[in-house]
């Protein structure tokens, strides 16, 4: 793999790493451990670096449990936008909480559901019988 300096995104790569690290809930020490025993000071220096080679970006992305593309294209405004608008675009609303709007997300046919429940009930009956016998 050819090493190249990240130039496709002009934003400060170290700041992106710091922001994502904080969003993921990792301390600099924890990220350092995930990067193979890197010291807290080395992680701090990494977060101050404006540009990093692709190999280092891949290692950091793996340690942060994000994709390389996600790390490279991370933009705080987009995260804020998605966070603010998440519920609006998901169809979740507080008005549906008190209503009788019950949406059935079940993909079972009614006969399949009845069969499944009957099997579950039969299993529970067997357990109850076994407990009764053990108790006697």
Structure characterization notes:
- The chain is mostly helical and 136 residues long.
- Helix content is 62%, strand content 0%.
- It has seven helices and no strands.
- The chain has helices spanning 13-24, 28-34, 40-48, 54-64, 68-72, 76-90, 110-135.
Please outline what is shown here:
By secondary structure, this protein is mainly alpha-helical.
- For this structure, what is the CATH class of the domain at 13-74? Mainly Alpha
* Strand composition percent: under 5%
Task: Give the beta-strand count.
Answer: 0
- Order of SSEs: HHHHHHH
Sheet having the most strands: none
User: Which stretches are low in confidence, meaning pLDDT under 50 for 5 or more residues running?
Assistant: 1-10, 92-104
CATH superfamily of the domain at 13-74: lambda repressor-like DNA-binding domains
Shape: elongated
User: What would you say the CATH architecture of the domain at 13-74 is?
Assistant: Orthogonal Bundle
What class, by secondary structure content?
mainly alpha
Helix content: 55-70%
Instruction: Please give the radius of gyration in angstroms.
Output: 26 Å
Distance between the termini: 71 Å
The CATH topology label of the domain at 13-74 is 434 Repressor (Amino-terminal Domain)
Organism: Chitinophaga jiangningensis
Protein name: Helix-turn-helix
InterPro entries: Cro/C1-type_HTH, Lambda_DNA-bd_dom_sf
Domain HTH cro/C1-type: 17-71
